Amino acid sequence: MTSDMIDFSTIFDRRESAVRSYCRGMPAMFQSASGSELKDADGRSWIDFLAGCSSLNYGHNDPDMKAALIDHIAGDGIAHGLDLHTGAKGSFLAAFERHILAPRDMDHRVMFTGPTGANAVEAAMKIARKVTGRTNIIAFTNGFHGVTAGALAATGNSYHRGGAGMMLNGVTRMPYDGYIAGQSDTADYLEAMLDDRSSGLDAPAAIILETVQGEGGLNVARPEWVRRIAKLAKKHGALLIIDDIQAGCGRCGTFFSFEEMGVTPDIVTMAKSLSGFGLPMALVLVRPEYDVFEPAEHNGTFRGNTHAFVTARVAIEKFWADETFQNELTQKSDLIHDALSDLAALIPGAKLKGRGLMQGVDVGSGKLAGDICARAYEKGLVIETSGNEDQVVKVLAPLTTSPETFGQGFDILLEAARETLTETTNIAAE
Amino acid sequence: MTSDMIDFSTIFDRRESAVRSYCRGMPAMFQSASGSELKDADGRSWIDFLAGCSSLNYGHNDPDMKAALIDHIAGDGIAHGLDLHTGAKGSFLAAFERHILAPRDMDHRVMFTGPTGANAVEAAMKIARKVTGRTNIIAFTNGFHGVTAGALAATGNSYHRGGAGMMLNGVTRMPYDGYIAGQSDTADYLEAMLDDRSSGLDAPAAIILETVQGEGGLNVARPEWVRRIAKLAKKHGALLIIDDIQAGCGRCGTFFSFEEMGVTPDIVTMAKSLSGFGLPMALVLVRPEYDVFEPAEHNGTFRGNTHAFVTARVAIEKFWADETFQNELTQKSDLIHDALSDLAALIPGAKLKGRGLMQGVDVGSGKLAGDICARAYEKGLVIETSGNEDQVVKVLAPLTTSPETFGQGFDILLEAARETLTETTNIAAE
Amino acid sequence: MTSDMIDFSTIFDRRESAVRSYCRGMPAMFQSASGSELKDADGRSWIDFLAGCSSLNYGHNDPDMKAALIDHIAGDGIAHGLDLHTGAKGSFLAAFERHILAPRDMDHRVMFTGPTGANAVEAAMKIARKVTGRTNIIAFTNGFHGVTAGALAATGNSYHRGGAGMMLNGVTRMPYDGYIAGQSDTADYLEAMLDDRSSGLDAPAAIILETVQGEGGLNVARPEWVRRIAKLAKKHGALLIIDDIQAGCGRCGTFFSFEEMGVTPDIVTMAKSLSGFGLPMALVLVRPEYDVFEPAEHNGTFRGNTHAFVTARVAIEKFWADETFQNELTQKSDLIHDALSDLAALIPGAKLKGRGLMQGVDVGSGKLAGDICARAYEKGLVIETSGNEDQVVKVLAPLTTSPETFGQGFDILLEAARETLTETTNIAAE
Amino acid sequence: MTSDMIDFSTIFDRRESAVRSYCRGMPAMFQSASGSELKDADGRSWIDFLAGCSSLNYGHNDPDMKAALIDHIAGDGIAHGLDLHTGAKGSFLAAFERHILAPRDMDHRVMFTGPTGANAVEAAMKIARKVTGRTNIIAFTNGFHGVTAGALAATGNSYHRGGAGMMLNGVTRMPYDGYIAGQSDTADYLEAMLDDRSSGLDAPAAIILETVQGEGGLNVARPEWVRRIAKLAKKHGALLIIDDIQAGCGRCGTFFSFEEMGVTPDIVTMAKSLSGFGLPMALVLVRPEYDVFEPAEHNGTFRGNTHAFVTARVAIEKFWADETFQNELTQKSDLIHDALSDLAALIPGAKLKGRGLMQGVDVGSGKLAGDICARAYEKGLVIETSGNEDQVVKVLAPLTTSPETFGQGFDILLEAARETLTETTNIAAE
User: Fold this and answer.
1) CA D228 to chain centre
2) Does the keyword field hold Transferase (chains A, B, C, D) (predicted)?
3) Tens of each residue's pLDDT in chain A, 430 residues
4) What ipTM, to 2 d.p.?
5) Contact (CB<8Å) D87/C30
6) How far is CA C33 from CA B163, B426, C63, in A?
7) Closest chain C residue to the Cα of D121, Cα to Cα
8) In 3-state terms, what secondary structure has residue C157?
């Protein structure tokens, strides 16, 4: 190590781009991590309710993945394999077929894209356009699908969209399920516009949606709404793309977020927790009849991140070979729901959001949510906000977090909330 | 390992997308690799003159990087760090500042993007548009910058462009240096159009170029042309972006491909060999005055691939702390030039292309180049083509390849060429 | 005349593009016209309930305009004046100021564009984008604004949109007032998306709307909805553009269609009946603070169609100098409403549409509406359909049509409807 | 007339948009015109070397067209006919077929578009995209094709392009013939890029060009260049569109500007002088096999400007029924060339530009050209500049201008030039 040479107090300020973000509110120098615990260079530790924004669903440095990865590296296993056949890729594919696809009756093909969620979304959008010969893709309010130009067109957030510096084309925006509380089904509106040949809604290549909008504020689509959207897509010759990058890999209580909804998407995008270990990896699942790319028509240097194949294979075999893990998730989901109900009860007007292990509380203002998370960080809990006004305190703990650790985390969170509210009240009273 | 459960002969056909490419011509099941050697599951070995398309400039599984990475993993080092401060990132930044930026008088900021080259290019284009408030970006014939929608607009290849399924906007195409042999400087044309307010060339946000076009066929820009482009960019208020994803990290004989050209780009994009180990990593270097993104305005889950920071730091310290490595590259460049001259001498009309360790031979047809590479593969050499007709046999060996291994590789290549030519002649004679 | 040389039976088939349309259902060779009457070469006559799609609001060949125009031509008055000052233009401007703008407290500037409605819309959209520095323009379902690329992006009709052969950008579509019967105010949805910074609705440069959608099927916006849209535009920094090309010039009972709504648009587009005589003329009214085009920044050869200025001046002075004409329109509106109620009563499920002298009946199917119009044509009435399925029989008679002629026209229309329905019933009964 | 009510000194300032342009340098109140003479309200007269920017090729108020038009109006002829059959349209079509199309072996269909050149260009571009299923259209440096969004994308002028307020898509720019003096044929570059599948030039739907660039500065394409472009278009499956809006209708000495070049365009756009009288009229000529629009797929209220059909028919019959007129044009072209040579001789570095009756002198600076034209105006000659820096003094006199009037006009022009030069020299000498 050369840390003796580095002035750690200034290197980031001196050299890292101003685009950096999480480190501003959580300025510790993180060094190691295990399970649901993060440690900094000084040995201070935090419970992790962020989990790399759902990229560490199985916790940090899972011992089995870690062992397999070290074995692989020590044995000079391929690290970078382009899209060549490697044993590691073959093993991953076989495990993914056996434990994920086959039991769910999915005959989808697996496309390894550049290892970012945005790249998977870009590939999915391209496939849909190629299959249909159409350009328009329907996306929803508050959706988040990445920040490269194609994916960004589908992302709702104006802060990110503004970063493009140009018009973002090819996407039509529709209201997500329940967009205006108390109003009728937003699918009515989509249906009316699709059926009306003078609506100005161009015939869609695809409809892309998240079943739970992670960045958008943990908005949940009802299964009947998703089914209706799926039916509309089919009727109008559009592909249904479910972006399961944040909500998939068990986050909603099942491997795919849509499993219990009675729909089979034409395309699924996955990334984040796919490698199990936090390593960059992404894929697109596509029905065989829509697997239309010619060789390398969509490519990318790192589409064969072999280290990730190794850990991803272990993750699938360890957690998804039987129902044990999934059953635990149901219990944890309830645990989270109860704890967050307690939190919500503290705050007038607060609303529970999300489902599964992707729940949170809309506390009504981004300021309050931010203050609660900042105070939690000081007390040893890493947790973040989401939503269009950052008004939702969002729990994205590793799915492997033990009930005890959940308890400790929630104790911190509630204490942080109480203190924040007291202080706010005191300030208001002065 | 679960390989006993897998029918390796069919898993890829059964489940991997038809988009897979390299594995079609090189169908071995690769298993391990070291230095410039690749091995398959049956123990057969190949010399690697592809190096993950220049992503493995220091060879496979460099022992020092390997040791550091295993140490890191074994010690539960952070694997996935979002954009939090980590020791691994701090160490990388410090090494990069000390050995790369400072000695070259570059005060650029380092932006870690999603870990693919395309993502770095997308970020660079967005920065230029944000800085200038302009949309148009000038790119060149035969340029390759990635296949996500923003980057793809700058990529010349119609095969990749066609994959978009939509109009690609925001980029104007200009002829690269020497585009039409024997004609006057293509920069004349760019200058005339920039100076002419009725040319229809919208004021550019940036000019993006590769100093050597790797995918485009190893076309080399003359230093004086690059300087002239840099001057035109400055005069017309555009940023100069050098895409050093394939040509950088020593590939041209110096760390950056443009070092000896007398230009300092406003923005540099890097990826491929940046991590040193083949792990996904990308960054954008940007002059401080253009480091204009707000926090997380451009983001991405895997922008903190900490494993890559670990190996990248070792790569910088091991190879770029002094001049030793760079000096060796000069000699290897000559060696490659000599060997390829021998190859070119076999083929009427063949032309040497490229520079540094990024050289090749334009053999006049994609068919011939492909046949030579296929035969080389059979004889134990992994090598690929590039160019708009795939007509260039391209040597992208690890920079660390020993002279002996180079010799063996070139022996195979020349033999493959001779046999291919003989067979072709025989067929023609029949 | 050279008609002796022409084979009139085939010249159109032989030489006119297949794009021709109205002449297919109304194949007569029209020769002359006066007031509300059209005559063909054989002396057959029709009552005109189409009025050049509302371009002949004062009837054909109004005697006062005709006299003024002949005087002008006979006296070698300027025919084509670019944007030079001409007496004819000055006189028109003065009359327009005195009788139209000043009494309505509108200090708008008058921009003469190329003499088509589409050109006025293109100019309006460009102004809004220039004023705001934004690109996005909000348009509504079933809106029709022209078929040139900029305007076509705002037009809803997929048949016209498909003619573009390319992606149409820069416009977001929202549901028009009452888009889904029985559902809540569509402005709620627009408001929610404008207020939500993650909705994906980019900040708008303008909101463009027709108060009655002529081509879209005589859909009428309620005044309170228009006021709410106007307020939302103002709140969010967008300009309000009212496209009064078809609904203006008295068609809705007042000179502008929006007069009694309590809104003053930032921009108004006018064309069709503006010249009064059916001559090509278009203009954009723009608030002085938004009159931002530099000299000739938007131009066009025929923006000074001086013949049209002559007749347009007469039209303003003859019909809008006092309230007489407007008062007659109120009575005629009632007359039309009563007659169309009789028509609607014949057809189960039929609905009255529109307002003022822009009313019709939605007969439930394009087939039925087309059959009624075809039969009316055979009986001496020129009338057309509109709507997304062409399901609305639309009355667009000259505003100057006498009650007697209205009576004759409606007699024909009802007879045509009765016969069509009888025949349809008979066919169904067989 | 109501001029007594108008304060003519201020009505334009008070009410006309700031976009007005020609009237700024030529502020007279024009009232009447005949042949090549313009008169203002005070009886002052000017020789017209502008001719409505080539919209008045047969002069103002041609007596035969005038008589026919007055007859038509007096007889209650149709003024506005949508796209119905009218006698006037039939007669025009027959004359156009007989005297223009048939003798030139052109079997093109005639599409009447909205009566502006921009609208014809928009329609032409849409046809090419529909025919080919491609989007990209190749246009040239310094081309001018209109300012509506679709056409503006093909227009080179940055002043006009900037007015769009948005990215203009769907067009690739190439250098016009002789773009850089002394360099090799610009068609080489177009050919290379079309042949190169990695050039980034998307397969074109069409190539659009003017044979003489009127607004662009009277740049002339050589016949052999046009032939080569035509060949490239054919080879690459693109339609050749010749925009003959300014250069057609005899302006270059023959009816079409391309007649003697050995090419037959797939599409021709016409407007400006088509009606012969300065009335708004435009059309698209399209080969029958490309006449692919469905009925009304491209439409427009004023596509049946019947007054224009009347005068256009007379223009065709009077001037193009035999060779007399065309022969005169050859002589006038020489006359203009001689006079402009005299002008050019006065100014060091001046260059003759253009051909036929579309000639001018590049005087080297926009300031000088503007000063000469301003002084000419004061002396009784209306004349304008063109070019990317407005550096070309452009003669666009009516084609019917007599040699005597040409003489008088050129006398004024030369005197204006001499005085301007003297004054400039004096100022410089002070």
Assistant:
1) 23
2) yes
3) 344 444 566 999 999 999 999 999 999 999 999 999 999 999 999 999 999 999 999 999 999 999 999 999 999 999 999 999 999 999 999 999 999 999 999 999 999 999 999 999 999 999 999 999 999 999 999 999 999 999 999 999 999 999 999 999 999 999 999 998 888 899 999 999 999 999 999 999 999 999 999 999 999 999 999 999 999 999 999 999 999 999 999 999 999 999 999 999 999 999 999 999 999 999 999 999 999 999 999 999 999 999 999 999 999 999 999 999 999 999 999 999 999 999 999 999 999 999 999 999 999 999 999 999 999 999 999 999 999 999 999 999 999 999 999 999 999 999 999 999 999 888 777 6
4) 0.96
5) yes
6) 56, 83, 12
7) C148
8) coil
A167 to chain D: which residues are within 8 Å by CB? 166-167
The three-state secondary structure class of D224 is helix
What residue ranges in C93-210 does DSSP mark as E strands? Answer: 109-112, 137-140, 171-174, 206-209
Q: Which of C179, C180, C201 sits opposite A173 (nearest CB)?
A: C201
CATH of domain D78-319: 3.40.640.10
Q: Which residues of C touch A136 (CB under 8 A)?
A: 167
Q: Search chain B and give the residue with CA nearest A122.
A: B148
Q: pLDDT by residue (tens digit) across B21-61?
A: 999 999 999 999 999 999 999 999 999 999 999 999 999 99
Considering the segment(s) B3-63+324-429 as one domain, its CATH architecture is: Alpha-Beta Complex (3.90)
- Give residue C46's identity as a one-letter amino acid code: W
Is some CB atom of chain A closer than 8 A to the CB atom of D167? yes
Provide DSSP, B307-358: HHHHHHHHHHHHHSSSSHHHHHHHHHHHHHHHHHHHHHHHSTT-EEEEETTE
Q: Residue D187's Cα: distance from chain center in Å?
A: 24
Q: How confident is the model at residue D25 (pLDDT cuts 50, 70, 90)?
A: very high
Q: Do A189 and C202 touch (CB under 8 A)?
A: no
Separation between Cα atoms, residue A37 and residue A61, nearest integer Å: 10
Distance from CA of B79 to the nearest CA of D (A): 39
| Interface residue C385 vs chain A (CB under 8 A) | no
Distance (Å, whole) CA A87 – CA A336 = 39
Q: Do A196 and C155 touch (CB under 8 A)?
A: no
Subunit contact B135:A98, Cβ cutoff 8 A: no
Could you state, in order of their start, the residue ranges of all structural domains in chain B?
Answer: 3-63+324-429, 78-319
3-state secondary structure of D16: strand
A-B contacts at Cβ under 8 angstroms: 421
203-262 in D: which are within 8 Å (CB) of C? Answer: 205
CB contact, 8 Å: C170 with chain D?
Answer: yes
CA distance C28 to chain D (A): 7
- Cβ distance A166 to B29 less than 8 Å, yes or no, reads no
* Residue of chain B minimizing CA distance to A284: B17
Residue C167 with chain B: CB contacts under 8 Å: 166-167
Q: Please tell me the pTM assigned to this model.
A: 0.97
Q: Are strands C171-174 and C219-220 parallel, antiparallel or unpaired?
A: unpaired
Hey, what are A369's tokens? 């949510």
Question: At residue A387, what is the residue type?
Answer: G
Angle between helices B366-378 and B403-429 (to 10 degrees): 120
Report how far Cα C312 is from the mean position of its chain's Cα atoms.
16
Contact D197 B158 (CB under 8 A): yes
Scanning B87-126 for CB atoms below 8 A from A yields: 87, 89-91, 93-98, 101, 109-112, 114-119, 122, 125-126
Count Cα atoms within 13 angstroms, Cβ side, for D156: 31
Half-sphere exposure of A233 (CA within 13 A, CB side): 27
Between the alpha carbon of residue C82 and those of residues A64, C93, D55, D244, the distances in Å are: 80, 16, 9, 19
C66 touches chain A (CB under 8 A): no
